[in-house]
Specification:
By secondary structure, the protein is mainly α. It has 2 helices and no strands. Helix 1 runs antiparallel to helix 2.
Length: about 60
């Protein structure tokens, strides 16, 4: 991405600037999407871990563990 944005610094101009801004905005949107996916995956994992802890607690309480 840096290589795509760098021409804006090397050759200032409206077109280079606009192109660099579009590229940075696309990259930001991509990262935002990935962040959302990671948050959902972490939430799923948190729920699974909580269920596993609860299952183990019930096993210990029943004397089966």
């Amino acid at each position: 991405m840096i290589a795509e944005v760098l021409p804006c610094a090397e050759t200032p101009g409206e077109e280079a600037f606009d192109s660099a801004m579009r590229r940075m905005e696309l990259e930001r949107a991509r990262i935002t999407g990935e962040t959302g996916d990671l948050v959902r995956k972490r939430q799923s994992l948190d729920a699974l871990v909580a269920e596993a802890h609860e299952y183990r607690r019930r096993l210990v309480a029943s004397g089966s563990a």
